[in-house]
Design goal:
The complex is a heterodimer of chains A (285) and B (104). In chain A, the strands form 4 sheets. In chain A, strands 1, 2, 3, 4, 5, 6 and 17 form a 7-stranded mixed sheet that branches. Chain A has a 5-stranded parallel sheet with strand order 7-14-8-9-10, covered by helices on one side. Chain A has a 3-stranded antiparallel sheet with strand order 11-12-13, with no helix packed on it. Chain A has 7 helices and 17 strands. Chain A is an alpha/beta fold. In chain A, helix 1 runs parallel beside helix 7 (264-284). The radius of gyration of chain A is 20 Å and the shape is globular. With 104 residues, chain B is α/β, with parallel strands linked by helices. Chain B has 4 helices and 5 strands, in the order E-H-E-H-E-H-E-E-H. Chain B has a 5-stranded mixed sheet. In chain B, a hairpin with a 2-residue loop joins strand 4 (73-78) and strand 5. Chain B is globular and about 30 Å long. The mean pLDDT of chain B is 95. The chains are: A alpha/beta (285), B alpha/beta (104). The interface between A and B is medium-sized, with 24 and 25 residues. Bound molecules: flavin-adenine dinucleotide (FAD).
Chain lengths: 285, 104
């Protein structure tokens, strides 16, 4: 039996770190998942003018201070990307890479997902469009798969698909790395839309239509309702009440994931609230 | 109880007044998470609807026939007619509401 944590916290920005600190101080066993290097939104800020007690601190120094705070409480970050959170009833399954963790409560502090879906993407989701090569790849054994690569992990996933599919068309977007395999064709054209009839069958670029049986859209940020099947959202934000509760009992959201304003101090404050609500939830079960 | 469909034979599900067929596979993470949910629902909805599981690797013709492009895929049948389908994991309450809505 895998260990069941009291609270799993997803995201290593100010919201997740604040939630982790409060949960740890309250004596809960926690699993803090996200990049060990912390949120990129911390290091990228040149100067933060409005965080109480830390006037004109640089984002890099703020990140160092947060890391030191985690260290002082003995909180370790489990470096990884969460692919999905499954609400199982009175516990949650949290899939990250090959591992599925278990926790009694979950705090979603994964920031806000940017970038709009491509035309056709939502329409054909589950009908030729997939977000997970390791989940759906085998359905395209011996066929042609297209990978729209918006993130660093996409190259690895394309190489995995190449072991199953006859051909893999790889569309690197931005700084996505280039995979290596004989049957991978790198296509340097920007995907504009996904086309099909009843089922997706082509990636449209300015150069024309590139036919494929399966189209894998691999992004860094996953929309919260995709990360957590069954989660209620309002636009791009997770719907929460003032206690940071979501529609799923035991699952809380905070920080940018829970909506505007996008601010460090608000994220940290909501992380604290979410942790206290999770502690209360656990005590009432 | 969830009955396994073997050798592409799902006549029983089509003959039932109401049946739910969960197309999944052993290598698929969300399918593994959905399995206990379906098991519990099969008990809660006992007498109203029969539950089946079809492994897409073992039943490729059925998967092809029902256009399964992504799994888990849950298909609802009423008197042998396909009346609804849902792709991906759903929490139990959600899945129950979905199945009940399709059975009308
Ligand atoms: C350049 C810049 C300057 C800014 N300046 C200011 C300022 O001066 N003052 C201010 O108040 N705000 C400022 N902001 C806004 C601030 O950065 C955000 O409001 C804040 O970072 C939100 O914190 P968060 O913890 O909610 O989310 P984030 O900081 O976005 O953290 C989200 C975390 O979740 C992780 N994550 C996401 N998905 C997954 C997944 N599937 N699995 C695991 N981990 C995942 C991410 O990697 C990240 O670690 C600035 C933002 C930028 C970009």
């Amino acid at each position: 039996m895998p260990q069941r944590y009291d609270i799993a916290i997803i995201g290593t920005g100010p919201a997740g770190i604040s939630a982790a600190i409060t949960a740890a101080v309250r004596g809960k066993t926690i699993l803090l998942l996200g990049p060990a290097a912390l949120s990129e939104k911390l290091s990228r800020a040149e100067k933060i003018e409005n965080y109480p007690g830390l006037p004109a601190i640089s984002g890099a120094d703020f990140a160092r201070a947060l890391s030191a705070h985690l260290d002082s409480l003995g909180i370790r970050i489990t470096d990884g990307r969460v692919g999905a959170v499954y609400a199982m009833g009175d516990w949650f399954g949290i899939q990250a890479g090959e591992t599925t963790y278990e926790a009694s409560a979950v705090i979603l502090a994964c920031g806000v997902a940017q970038g709009k879906p491509l035309p056709g993407e939502e329409e054909f989701l589950g009908r030729g469009v997939s977000y997970c090569a390791t989940c759906d790849g085998r359905l395209y054994r011996g066929k042609t798969a297209a990978v729209l690569a918006y993130c660093a992990e996409a190259a690895k996933e394309a190489e995995f698909l190449a072991t199953l599919c006859a051909r893999v068309l790889y569309f690197p977007v931005g700084r996505a790395p280039i995979p290596r395999a004989e049957n991978i064709e790198v296509i340097r054209e920007l995907p504009r839309a996904i086309a099909g009839e009843g089922k997706a069958n082509a990636v449209l670029t300015d150069a024309g239509a590139r036919e494929a049986d399966g189209i894998f859209v691999l992004r860094d940020a996953v929309l919260p309702e995709r990360l957590v099947p069954g989660l209620a959202t309002e636009g791009e934000r997770v719907a929460v009440d003032l206690s940071m509760r979501t529609n799923l009992p035991g699952l809380f959201a905070c920080g940018d994931a829970a909506g505007r304003p996008y601010q460090y101090v608000k994220a940290a404050g909501q992380g604290n609230t979410a942790a206290l609500s999770a502690v209360e939830y656990l005590s009432k079960r | 109880m969830v009955t396994k469909i073997e050798n592409e034979k799902m006549e029983k599900a089509l003959e039932a007044k109401a049946a739910v067929v969960d197309f999944s596979a052993t290598w698929c993470g969300p399918c593994r998470m959905l399995a206990p949910v379906m098991e519990e629902l099969s008990e809660e909805l006992k007498g109203k609807v029969d539950f089946y599981n079809a492994d897409t690797d073992e039943n490729p013709q059925l998967a092809g026939k029902y256009n399964i492009y992504s799994i888990p895929a849950v298909l609802v049948f009423k008197d042998g007619q396909l009346v609804g389908s849902s792709v991906g994991f759903r929490p139990k309450a959600d899945m129950k509401a979905f199945i009940e809505s399709k059975l009308g």
